[in-house]
Amino acid sequence: MNNEEKSQLANQVQTDVSLISFLSVVSVFFIGALLPQFNSYDASVRIPISFLIVSTFAFIFSGLILSNATQRINQGDLQRTEKHLAYGYAISEYMGVFLFVLSVPIAMSIVTTDLYLRVITFVAAIVGISVYQFGGFSLLGNHFSKSNILFAIITVLFGVVLFLSQTFAFHFTVIATLFLLFMLAITILAPMKSFQ
């Protein structure tokens, strides 16, 4: 990598870190707004808030990983730079963005029982995440082109099943646990060369 390429990549990474930092602030805002809104601690309340908490930590740690990539870029260490970028983006997208976006519709049950508002929030989340993923706007689309499409389809389907299972009180805790395990698995596997 020449100096100009290093500089461009470092600037892009810093821009991404700024975005991820902003998303962590938004996630913390949602957690702060939702925590005082409930009187019970059943699973339908704990799960969406736990997703938001995990999402917040994912944004924080992915920001740290990507920020550290700048040092590797400046050193010209391409192998470590690629590792930092792959894991930083995977954590921010799968454990950060996906969990955050899909937790908002299920967290709406804390704020309101109005089905119309809950459905509108769900549709906005699913359509938004679908356009983001399948429209070629995802950060991961460039890095994990083959696996990202499959993971995105499964994640969107999980989002639909999560919302329906919460709405109809049908194995919500089990589905939420499977979803979280799936997200953790793809976060770990996606950066591996065999899954790209």
Structure description:
- It is a single chain.
- The protein has 6 helices and no strands.
- With 196 residues, it is mainly α.
- It has one domain.
Order of helices and strands: HHHHHH
**Cα-to-Cα separation, first versus last residue:** 22 Å
Number of helices: 6
Oligomeric status: single chain
Task: Name the overall outline.
Answer: elongated
State the low-pLDDT regions, or none. none
Helix content: over 70%
Rg, alpha carbons:
18 Å
Task: Tell me about the largest β-sheet.
Answer: none
Rounded average pLDDT? 85
Secondary structure category: mainly alpha
Tally of strands: 0
Quickly count the domains: 1
What percentage of amino acids are in beta strands? under 5%
Question: Keywords, please?
Answer:
elongated, 196 residues, mainly alpha, 6 helices
Describe the protein's topology:
Layout: H1 3-34, H2 43-75, H3 78-111, H4 115-134, H5 145-167, H6 172-189
Helix pairs in contact: 1-2, 1-3, 2-3, 2-6, 3-4, 3-5, 3-6, 4-5, 5-6
